[in-house]
Amino acid sequence: MGAALRTEYRKLVTTRLWWVLLLAMVGYMAFIAPIMAFVVTQGGDMGTVPGGEGGGPLPPDAIVRTVYTIAVTLGYTFPLVVGTLAVTTEFRHQTITPTLLAEPRRSVVLGAKLLAGAVLGLVFGVVGTATVAGAGALVVSLAGQPTYLDLASTWRVLALSAVALALWAVVGVGFGSVLTNQVAAIVVILAFTQFLEPLLRFGLAATSWGDGIARFFPGAAAEALSGGSLYAEMGATQLLSPLQGAAVLIGYALLFAAIGRFTTFRRDIT
Amino acid sequence: MATTKPLPSHDRVIAVSHLSKTFGPVRAVDDLTFEVHPGRVTGFLGPNGAGKTTTLRMLLGLVRPTSGTATIGGRPYHRLPRPLRTVGAALEASSFHPGRTALDHLRTYAPQVGVPDARASEVLDLVGLGGAADRRVGGFSLGMRQRLALATTLLGDPPVLLLDEPANGLDPEGIRWLRVFLRALAAEGRTVLVSSHVLSEVEQTVDDVVIIARGRLVHASPLDDLVRLARPQVRVVSPDAAGLTALLARGGWTRAGDPDATGHAVDLVDVDAATVGAAAFAAGLELHELSTRNPGLEGLFLDMVATPAAPTHPEVAA
């Protein structure tokens, strides 16, 4: 397993994609976090959602919950895509053949990919969260408000945000092993994360029964893990506890990986 | 090059036994049995679609056989402890990430082979790609990809090599280089299996041939035996079977293969048509046919792999 892990790590870092995506994530976070910080510190109205309790200025500690977790709320697509591509590129470029020649035990290959995905995901999580915290805190302090960066609870949120993003990459590896067609996988990811899940979460929140379902969506679970979310502040969804959120997210990763193991990784490689 | 581990020679034998693979309605490999021995270069020959690649992929554990076994040193591929230390395989020249450099491609697999990174540079030099080590594979020609694929197989200095169409895309100079290289690997006691759909491409490289067509074994022998079969033959047909037999006995000529049931027609080798014709004339033997066939090695190969007029396997005839 050690050798397989080192090989997976080298596969990831010897192509340009990972740092291109990381750079894109940093750029996006550096752009969105100050905007969010500005809106929150100016006591902006976050809008009202039917059934939600939103509306009116947010309480001060909302800075922590909304701004510092923005990487989990809006930036998770990057680690998710990186994890997915770790599998789909192998099929796209047929490198799955030398991969399985080097390690014919296919469970070991998949396991190494999941673990390597977690490590690279953590890099995305730390860098993405740091960008958000840095850019966000700068705007908050310029507005003359407390950044809350002196509180241990804030650092806990930041750490959990990084962990949530790392888990997103693992979910990506699992998803990629189910849907190995790279173009299809990316289209599905974008459609689900940018459109379907937000829409469903708002829609379900409007019903009396939907909230219990929406909190088990992967996006909601990740936000639960980091302990706060823009959506939750907007009153869209009640979140699970952080631990439950982590469990749900890991559950998605393992479920996908298990399906991938018994479909993609069982087939003949021709 | 590092020295080959002193594996007992039976650990280098590739054995395919009653191997079959069905893809949907297509029987890609059909009850195939053959062995490949160390210290020799074996040509695995057959037209496109004969089942060569599928057979290699079953040997390498990438495709699950419908029935039968394919082993290396008596073990299926997935049971080999460090497979890349035992078997080096190059299946197609396109199994590279185009954005990765040649050296990074090799270094990627080095941990699983269990060799230091320096070995990656070593094998690149070995295949003449040392100068292109830091270039991305996406910009490589087909010939360079073939060399990189070969370099990958050599990472673990394996005693068994399986190469699928390694001469594809090589220029004549490259083919010559490959020939010398493969001969040298076999001379070190390695088992070298090289597939090709053109016999002439490997004719000067191989010691043994395994020829398949439509998934079935057509011929397996040392190349010399195949060459012998490809000698010019003189066909003699006479209505007088007894007279023909007597003529043959007097001439002391060698028959090629078995006589046909009637005894009216024979094929002879090591004799020319003029000699046979003169002897028949002198003996007053009536001849209905006296002809020379010189198929050559390639012609013989094409005859062997040609689709039969009456297909024995209707399911693949379509």
UniProtKB/TrEMBL annotation, chain A:
The chain crosses the membrane at residues 17-40, 67-87, 114-143, 155-176, 183-200, 239-259. It comes from the Bacteria. Keywords: Membrane, Transmembrane, Transmembrane helix. This is ABC transporter permease. It comes from Cellulomonas algicola.
